[in-house]
């Protein structure tokens, strides 16, 4: 008899990660193998998705192309369904099953019904609690929102359709309330470590991620799943291991062995006295150059410029006796006219770019960029900067270029399509970045063609844990005039 498969789908509290954090993120789907035997576990959860947005993913197609009779489908959504600021993900827990905008309808029609039609057995999990720093689990931390109670919506759906429900909301709520938030934090990812007085590296509690689990927390929730399942009549319980070993802090709470403390100081913008080629006129905008720039970036002979030449008109880039800076596989060096924004702010930045100068060389580029960190005229020879960013614009190779690109964990990624020519002087482009919660939309119109890419749950807090930096950049023999610059704060993100 063919071994059954347990397919696991859901959001970031379920999915796998590859983090450089002190306590990296782990979804509970990655730790289920500790409690099951004689069944294949396939975790297809994706960070940042809701029951509404997940059905647009290839992983969704893969589930229902492959699931067969007597397989199982474990469903763990809710965190992102409650994001009422994001129409691509929001579903309403207050509305009934019959309403197509409801959380219950989305779960039933897109997952439960399709699994049953395939002869598979669906299992619903209510969302785990976020750690509440005031130990108040009467509101959003326990998914009780102005648009309904997401745990109760799942429980009601399970009762109405006779589907097994594992109440992880109550399990984590009761545990966290009993422990208090300082102990509950130990189950959650922590971005940074810091040096203690004895020289050892310890977790920096100011950087605890109150939504996402670490390895210990993921195993803890997997243990809850196993123990809750044991008390149901769901056939999946037949595949539980005979001994369910509860995770222990001493054994399971282990820091990332490759973690290194990063020394970073956010720019002291209130003290910044820029040279003439980095001066701005509009409050909130600043000019700089940093990274792999072939010398001290603010020295005039280096050719970097990031200034506002008249109100609302910015010249950004590099030109001079020799080309400097780069966007390469191993490092970045660029001119950047930027704003610092709170990591909780939703925003829109748009601009028109006109190329004033280009050296038609590889590793050059321009556009709008959203970054984790920023530096004031950093001396390139002392540090290679390869931190996370998203960019909409153009970046060149030898004789081709790519629109929209990003760097993540030091690796540069270029989105398709590849354009078989290089940008020229006089070319124009319309550029836009929009942030709504965890969704970052990068848009570009160039030579009549439109390009767009949405990045969900992209990590922009690995270095600077409280701010983002957004603005206009150009580098390596390219100087661009940015006009029609429009920046707006559009509200507060509802978080992860």
CATH topology of the largest domain: Rossmann fold
The figure for the number of domains is: 2
Query: How many H/I helical runs?
Result: 7
User: Tell me, what is the CATH class of the largest domain?
Assistant: Alpha Beta
> What is the number of beta strands?
26
Q: What is the CA-CA span between the terminal residues?
A: 42 Å
Biggest pleated sheet: 8 strands, antiparallel
How much helicity do the residues have?
10-25%
Shape: elongated
Task: Briefly note the structural class of the backbone.
Answer: alpha+beta
CATH architecture label name of the largest domain: 3-Layer(aba) Sandwich
Poorly predicted segments: none
Compute the CA-based radius of gyration.
25 Å
Strand content is: 25-35%
Could you state the CATH homologous superfamily of the largest domain? SGNH hydrolase
Mean pLDDT: 96
Question: In words, what does this structure look like?
Answer:
- Strands 12, 15, 16, 18, 19, 20, 21 and 25 form an eight-stranded antiparallel sheet that branches.
- The mean pLDDT is 96.
- This protein has two domains: 5-252, Rossmann fold, CATH 3.40.50; 269-492, Sandwich (Jelly Rolls), CATH 2.60.120.200.
- Strand 20 and strand 21 form a beta hairpin.
- The protein has helices at 58-66, 103-117, 150-161, 168-179, 181-184, 215-230, 249-252, and strands at residues 5-10, 40-43, 72-76, 121-125, 144-145, 148-149, 164-166, 188-190, 193-195, 201-203, 208-213, 286-291, 304-310, 313-318, 326-327, 332-342, 345-357, 365-371, 389-396, 401-408, 411-414, 428-436, 439-446, 449-456, 467-475, 479-492.
- The chain is elongated, with a radius of gyration of 25 Å.
- The protein is built from seven helices and 26 strands.
- The longest helix has 16 residues, at 215-230.
- It is 15% helix and 33% strand.
- The chain is an alpha+beta fold and 496 residues long.
